[in-house]
Amino acid sequence: MMLDQNRSLAKYILLSLVTCGIYSWIFIYHLANDMNTMCEGDGETTPGLVKLILLTLVTCGIYSFIWYYKLGNRLCANAPRYNLTFQENGTTVLMWQLFGALLCGIGPFIAWNIIIKNANALAAQYNNLVRGNVAY
To answer: Is 135 within 8 Å of 125 (Cβ atoms)?
Structure first.
């Protein structure tokens, strides 16, 4: 199964606006599934959309920050498996989510850009391995 390696922040923003936020949930659903596929065997799982929504509601939004943090760390931790290194980890993503919002609200978009960029790089390497083209 080939994973999406062409996600973009512009597409995410545009389609989320056009669909009144519905696309953002579809995006998260597919991202979580792809993360669990790419990082299989690392002893962790990225919770899917339903768990994210329910726990975010129950914790008054706090769980979403935990989800972003864990996602950023999981991307960073699994990068060496695919001969990649990422400068950004969960702390970077979390800081952009929390404190970057004070910069005219652009911080969360920077956090999403980091997640998208790193997920695309991991997916590209995963797809190369699936096709048998080792890109090390």
So the answer is: yes
Mean local confidence (pLDDT), 21-50: 96
Segment 55-98, tens digit of pLDDT: 999 999 999 999 999 999 999 999 999 999 999 999 999 999 99
Dist CA 68 CA 74 (whole Å): 10
Buried b (16+ CB within 10 A) or exposed e, 84-110: bebebbbebbbbbbeebeeeeeebeeb
The candidate with the shortest Cα–Cα distance to 125, out of 90, 75, 88, 84, is 84
Q: In this model, does residue 104 exceed pLDDT 90?
A: no
Distance CA 87, CA 133 (A): 25
Rg (CA), the chain: 15
